[in-house]
Amino acid sequence: MARRPHIAMLAAALIGASCSAADEPAGTPIVQRADEIAHMLEMAPWVSAGNEGPVLYVVTFRTCTNCAAFKAAEYETLLADGADVRWIVYARRDLAERRASNGELAAVAQLAADRDYGFFTRWYAVAPETFYESEGLAATEPDGAALSNVEFLRQIADDMAAILRANGVAAGSPIFLWQQGEAWMARAGYSAASFARVRESLLAEG
Question: Can you give the residue ranges of every domain in the chain?
């Protein structure tokens, strides 16, 4: 009998957590510099399967684990629902402990230049290094044009991150961007629970 208050408190906490998750907004409205976000997305070399439904932009890098989880859990369902999922894939800037391989740079540059959805699907179908070897990209030294494409995408990612921070969007990958009415919405990071709200918001525009 003495434990019942604890059980009641636990039940109340669980109910409160459930209500809190249900009340969580799908994303953050982009209030500051929304026109710049729209221009970046218009200029970015995205690729998609070509659906004609509501548009979801996914800004990502190839080795992003959250992005792989999103793609495995949500992507085919979104396509079946008619969404036009537009992928913008960039290579992260080099750090002392992390450098992009020639294969990654070459793949990012080629995808930006050709915007070939088949190339994108092959890239994500196998481990990155396996893909670079099979496509003959592993030993490719990116030239000036390729490096320009890489830098263009890196600059988009940098500028977008700065605008999202100014709008109160927490850092994370992937970045999801979509329109809710006339407003641009953003969310960073992926979990099944949080993305359920994104999907609901996105498909309501269909």
Answer: 26-203
